[in-house]
Amino acid sequence: MIQLRNIEKFYPQGASRFYVLRRIDLDINPGDFLAIMGPSGAGKSTLLHILGMHDSDWSGHYHLDGHEVHKLDRRRRLDLYKRYFGFVFQSYHLLDDLTVFENLEVPLTYRDIPRAERQSIVCDMLDRFQIVGKKDLFPNQLSGGQQQLVGVARAMIANPKVILADEPTGNLHSSQGLEIMEMFKKLNAEGATIVMVTHSETNAAYAHRIIRLEDGWIAGAPRNA
Asked: Which residues contact 147 (CB under 8 A, 6 or more apart)?
């Protein structure tokens, strides 16, 4: 599904370069559950945002289901993102002035889906995530765990092939974090591909594979010039 070859990202630093990612080669197959780990500053979130096409300032080759992402312009990358990805953020990123129902409906408004169909999809998602009773509440009326559950539901609302999650339990109590990870486990069992950045070994144990980054390199990759 996803193939990265020789992905690099750097920032100019005087006459030299500061590399955030170096020579990243990575294959992600349909149905994978991949955890990306490493110390702060290792490049984990940067790699996730390149995968999710939020970051376009990089070099290398990125193939997604036959699409040569590295050759596409910003608009065509955005179209691919909408078709393939759902993103779960550590800080939830819910819209404070919208209800749970309205927050879930937002991603569907970006697609040519009739209003009645959108509402039916949202109702199904509310039921699937067992948050029907929260549909008229605003984010500030929810606990952190409930907000993140809505965040996961929003990421899933358009039936993405890949869920990208950046420290999805980082702001949660352990019991709330366990609920989110069990939800990821269930979604993966239903066929969703998941790529998760985490510092937590407990969370990483849910993954099929763990990729560890060190100073922008995949641990164990050759570093010769």
From this structure: 92, 94, 139
